[in-house]
């Protein structure tokens, strides 16, 4: 990111995307940290909580497909703004609900709004970065998921103790409106931005698809679903998104149940896990970008990085043997960091293989698929944990889940490898109405 004489305003855009993603994950993560308090307040079972997570995931899936197409139509600036307004209002409304059903409703609205974050952010990266920098830029903004997940365990217990659970939702939800001010002041597409230099503009548009990629318009799902390039992203999301959601929504409960971690106090253990994911996100983005700059073909660099990541997740299967909380933290941190490295590259593959004008639509379709998987997986998690809790052996339930986590990425990579044999970027003319 050093100044090479061409200008660095694109990294200001990357910073905006990073902070939005951080806020997105603070608002998402807070319910997992307040789970023990809310269980007492509303009498939730594991299945009740799983159903609330499922509602969020289902609406998140719907939001992905809505915002993916919508953002390609109206642009990343307005689309991102609408998304963050919806999710921030929904986050604050959690403080007003009085029932389990009410939580389901506001979590659904939160999921609907939060779904716009990644289609808008990935599109903005495609608009502002050449291919050789996109994975690094994506890794940086995607590390906001990690920072948000780190900030939440440190901030939310303090807010809970100082003010109460309602105020925790209100304060964290209001952060989105602060970000929105900076977004409107600082963001515009490169061709309309007054602060970008001609050298930086030419550098951003140095890829061969620049001339045709900015064309606006809607693209039919039928055309996208008929392309292998779309299915690369779908597979990469549907098999791994549920694992990340398990890390988000059940790790606090796992450490509380298995190691008696007090979730009413700031949690260093959870902070370590989610801090590791920051290094995974940026490191995964850096690795594939480095390989490309060394002359590797773009797709080979992405796939090699994804394969390394898939191997890195496998040790989580050994978490079942951990009897010390810090051993468990180490094993799970490695897997969670690997997921974020996977995420940085699987998002970037979209902008590698499809024209810029279709990026949000493909992210929307694949994100919806990933969210459908994330909708179904919590049902398995809740049922499994309730079953083994009744048998007074809840650890066995977590052991099964860790085995699933360990195998998911390798399976996804094998399918992606098969799909991408002799694959080339999409010809923009194939997407013409």
TrEMBL record:
- On whether tRNA processing is a keyword of this UniProt record, the answer is no
Q: Could you tell me which residue ranges the Major facilitator superfamily (MFS) profile domain spans?
A: 13-424
Q: Which domain of life is it from?
A: Bacteria
Matching entries from Pfam families are given as: MFS_1
User: Which cell locations does it reside in?
Assistant: Membrane
Task: Respond yes or no to whether keyword Transmembrane helix is given for this record.
Answer: yes
Give the matching InterPro entries.
MFS, MFS_dom, MFS_Na/Anion_cotransporter, MFS_trans_sf, Sugar_P_transporter
The record's annotation in PROSITE patterns points to:
MFS
| MF (Gene Ontology) | hexuronate transmembrane transporter activity
The record's Gene Ontology cellular component field reads:
membrane
Q: Indicate the segments annotated as coiled coil, or none if absent.
A: none
**Gene3D superfamilies, per database record:** MFS general substrate transporter like domains
Q: Which UniProt keywords apply?
A: Membrane, Transmembrane, Transmembrane helix
Q: How does it sit in the membrane?
A: Multi-pass membrane protein
Question: Per the UniProt record, which residue ranges are transmembrane?
Answer: 52-71, 78-97, 168-187, 230-251, 271-292, 304-322, 328-350, 362-385, 397-416
> Which PANTHER family does the entry mention?
HEXURONATE TRANSPORTER (PTHR11662:SF285), SOLUTE CARRIER FAMILY 17 (PTHR11662)
Q: What is this protein called?
A: ACS family hexuronate transporter-like MFS transporter
Q: Which organism is it from?
A: Rhabdobacter roseus
